[in-house]
Structure formats: C-alpha cells, structure tokens
Please model this.
Amino acid sequence: MEISVNRLSPDKLKKRPADESKLGFGDIFSDHMFMMDYEAGKGWINPRIEPYGPLSIDPAAMAIHYGQQIFEGLKAYRGREDGVYLFRPRENFERMNRSALRLCMPEIPIEEAMAGMKSLVLLDREWIPRSPGTSLYIRPTMFATEPHLGVRPARSYLFYVIIGPVGAYYKEGLNPVKIYVEDRYVRAARGGTGEAKTAGNYAASLLAAEKAKEKGFTQVLWLDAAERKYVEEVGTMNMFFVIDDEVLTAPLDGSILPGVTRDSVLRIVRDWGLKVTERALAIDEVVAAAKSGRLKEAFGTGTAAVISPVGQITFKGEDHIVAGGKMGTLSQRLYDEIVGIQYGEREDRYGWLERID
Ligand SMILES: *Cc1c(COP(=O)(O)O)cnc(C)c1O
Model:
C-alpha cells in the first residue's frame, strides 16, 4: 500500500511548545495524523497522512452507540546520538489486533500500520521533545464508522494514529503513590473485555477513580470481579508486589490488560535471577505481608510512568505503608534499566529498541 501524504504548507504549521518542562500529558498534538479506512468487501484502503484536525462522523456511527473502539499507547524517544527510538512497537500492534478480535473489529495490517506510524513520526519529528524523561506519545485508535442503529458488528471503520509531546512523568523524582483498594466497584470480569484496550473499560473505571481521588488517593487497586479477593491492576497499570524476595504479579487470565511494560519487567527480573511468580494473589496476603514487614515493595507498570512505586495501600479503612513510603530498591533498578534501554543508553540485550532515524 502506498501512503499518500497531504502536508501542511510551512506557514500553517502549529507553534510547538517552547518550554519542555511544562509539558503535561495528552493535550498537545503534532501537525499531522495517519489514517486508513476499512470497508467490508474492500478491506483496508486509503492509507494517508493528513493535517491533524477534526473528523467528520455520522451521528449514527456505530462506535458512538455501541462502543466498538480500541486503542494503543506507545512512545517515541529522542535518545543517544540524537536518534529516534521506538520500544517494542510491534507488541502494541499485535495487542491491538487481539483487542480487535474481542470487539468483532477487523484486524489491521501490521506492516502498513507500522509504516504509517513511522512515516508520521518522522514527518513530525521536530515534535519529539529533547529534555530528559520527555517523549512523543503515540496513540493508534480504531472505531466503527458505519451509520446504523441495529446492534451488530459494523461494516466500516477508521484507523488513525495521532502523536504529541509529553512531559517527564516524574518531575520531582519518583514520588510513591497512595492507592485505594476498591472492594465495591469492579473494572472488568473474566470473560468480559478487560484484556482488550477498549474505551468501555475506562468509562467503567471512572466513578471509582473519582471517588478515590476525592479521598486523596492517586489510583484505585482493582480486585477480581467474582470474589473481590485477588489483586488485579492499579489504574491503567499492571501491578507487582515484592514479598520477602519473591516478585509477584497477577496472571493474564482474561480480566487484566497484558502490558508490554509488565512483560518487559518479567523478562528482566527473571534474567536478574530473582524469584518471579505469576499467580492469583489475595489482598489479604498483601495486607498480612505489609503488617509483618514482609511486603518490601509494590509498584505499577505501564508505558506512561514505566515504574510507579506505591507508598501506601489502603484497604477497608486501614493504611499500610510500603517501603517506608519511598521508592524501593527494585523499583528504582527496574526504572533505570528500562528507561536506559528506551533512550538507547543501556545495552539492549533483548532487541527491544528500534531506531528509526
Ligand atoms: C495500557 C494499560 C496497561 C499497561 O500496558 P503497557 O503496554 O505496559 O503500557 C495496563 N493496564 C491497563 C488497564 C491499560 O490500559
């Protein structure tokens, strides 16, 4: 597939943010976007780069009514030798296709989608910030466009990629977060859509997250839907616990999003020779370990923060301080290792890094 490029004329280019220390997350987008259409019977057509701008959508578009929407999140980094690097990008597109199958949406052609994304990043490469910890966030998205109000899988879709500069997640060092163990609301049930990156999961999580924020917590730790007993994820991150010298995380059994960062952490800690277990872990076990001083660390993993240390876990009105409320040793070591690889500064033993410029 040939990608057509409709470039903005130089006088129409947007003003880029001057102060990289003020970059937040998700408010600023570059000059262009990559798009392609799907029509039943024709497949994926019209791969193109267009100026970034509003979409025109039929009010009856099925995504708006029945929620056929999936997305991904990855980053481009400006690193060693002023290169432009991507971290395990194929994983995101493969996961997107697994999400697509769950939502009865068409799979995307991975090579074309990746080629489109890379062309976009290179066309708008001046938007990749240069300060330490900053990056270019990449958001591939797909939704159903067919105008129709009967409930069934749609016959037409739009896939697109938008990109924008994001700030260093930790401006004042890695500050551990306070998390609230949610024992009333659930995010996802096994057999549902929890393992797909689809909009509805996030809509379902908002109420609990807002209530937790009102009480001064940063994130919600989700328990399993059936018994409210086992720890699943925290906010939009996978969750790890270090009890004694064992690293524990929930297994991928259907309700948990299979994070790329989760997978990277598992590979690295296994290589470091640590004891690693993927198993159902009861919140009661975590609390007992915290009380007896055996809970050494707890941290979330995800593309945005990489490693997010947890300093406090609150369950049924009881606060449990983790690692003295500070960043744990393993959390710090993992953060340094993964970020080092992402910016091309540490040896990439796994072939995770792809230099595109
Ligand atoms: C995206 C996401 C993650 C983290 O996935 P990464 O691939 O590591 O960024 C974890 N949980 C949820 C619910 C997510 O949406």
In short: Helices lie at 62-66, 89-102, 110-123, 199-214, 260-271, 283-291, 329-342. The longest strand covers residues 156-166. The pocket of pyridoxal-5'-phosphate is lined by residues 73, 197, 233, 236-238, 257, 259-262, 301-303 (CB under 6 Å).
